[in-house]
Amino acid sequence: MKAALSALFTAFLLGEVHAESIRYVSDVFYAPLRSGEGNEYRIINKGIRSGTKLAVLEEGGNREWSLVRTPNGEEGWIRSQYLQSEPVAMVKLALVQREIDKLNQLQAENDKLKAKLKQSALQKKLHQSLVKQHQLLQTELEVLKAENARLDDDVKQTWFLYGSGAVGLGSLLTLIIPALRPRKRYSEWLS
């Protein structure tokens, strides 16, 4: 006993005793997807994460394995023990959290609307201002559409001019290039 206390005290002085830390086991699980019914078949996908939605195509003869299709269209066999008809708690929790977030957002919007209703005079002014802004934006949009159509026509005309210039240049080159080639002279020696 005295030796154990002495060793513990020495270890403490040397900094070898560490404080206890707490850890948790992760609930994320990855199941392998195989090419056939059994562990002897090759693994097609070793990372089907828990909570993944799978389409069951058929169950094996002993119901120990099931043929499934993943969301990306990959088909293979997975142990039936990894499948359940209800989403996993992690997915349910995420859905509930999204619903809570939506409710909180709706509550915040509801509070804002209540504050706006109390200021009805400001609402009328705001509505009139928005109607005027809408009319101005509508007019500006029509002007921009007309300008865009004009610019589109200008671009088409420019490309038409480039095309006709290229055709004209090609025709001119067709006439000039044959005239630049030296003509073959026929020698009297060959006859």
Descriptive overview:
By secondary structure, the chain is an alpha+beta fold. 54% of the residues lie in helices and 14% in strands. It has three helices and five strands. The protein has helices at 2-14, 89-118, 120-180; strands at 30-34, 43-49, 55-59, 65-69, 75-79. The strands form two sheets. A three-stranded antiparallel β-sheet has the order 3-4-5, with no helix packed on it. It is flat and about 120 Å long. The termini are far apart.
Fold blueprint:
Elements: H1 2-14, E1 30-34, E2 43-49, E3 55-59, E4 65-69, E5 75-79, H2 89-118, H3 120-180
Give the beta-strand count: 5
Largest sheet: 3 strands, antiparallel
Quick check: average pLDDT? 81
Structural Rg: 40 Å
Spans where pLDDT lies below 50 across 5 or more residues: none
Beta-strand residue percentage = 5-15%
Q: What structural category do the secondary elements indicate? A: alpha+beta
What is the straight-line distance between the termini? 128 Å
Number of helices: 3
Net shape: flat
Residues in helix, %: 40-55%
Order of adjacent strands in the largest pleated sheet = 3-4-5
| SSE topology string | HEEEEEHH
